[in-house]
Amino acid sequence: MKISKKYPPNYRQVVDILGADDTTVYCYGDTIYNPNNIEITPDIEVHEEVHSKQQGDNPELWCLKYLNDKEFRQQSEVEAYGAQYFFVKNHLGGGKMLEWLLDKLADELSSSCYNLDINQAQAKSKIRNEAKKGN
């Protein structure tokens, strides 16, 4: 994937609907937009690659649905966080670091930035279950 330090083309829509966060990277098409110069670790790249694949040939349409359909947004993020967790699990094999990561990912998924109305325990369960599919 390409990485750009610019804001994504739909940034204004994202801010209007979900708000702004200076720790967020954005996927639009085959590009990770990283305006705040966040470190893009391999697991984050895996997460964003899932979003790129989800968008297919029409990132604009996918993004509109993502922003306006909470259930679709949750499904999309669970798939991406599950793949991210699966990737790290395959590299770490388990242990305290993996549990720490799962807590961190569940905190992100259940945070107000996604506006999904799920708690941390629900987010953890969803990520684990998605990772079991072998993303």
Description:
- It is a single chain.
- Helix content is 61%, strand content 7%.
- The longest helix has 23 residues, at 70-92.
- It has a 3-stranded mixed sheet.
- It has one domain (2-132).
- By secondary structure, the chain is mainly alpha-helical.
- It has helices at 11-18, 42-55, 59-68, 70-92, 96-109, 120-132, and strands spanning 2-4, 26-28, 31-33.
- The protein has 6 helices and 3 strands; from the N terminus they run E-H-E-E-H-H-H-H-H.
Give a brief rundown of this model.
This protein has 135 residues and is mainly α. It has helices at residues 11-18, 42-55, 59-68, 70-92, 96-109, 120-132, and strands at 2-4, 26-28, 31-33.
SSE topology:
Elements: E1 2-4, H1 11-18, E2 26-28, E3 31-33, H2 42-55, H3 59-68, H4 70-92, H5 96-109, H6 120-132
Parallel strand pairs: 1-3
Antiparallel strand pairs: 2-3
Helix pairs in contact: 2-4, 3-4, 4-5, 4-6, 5-6
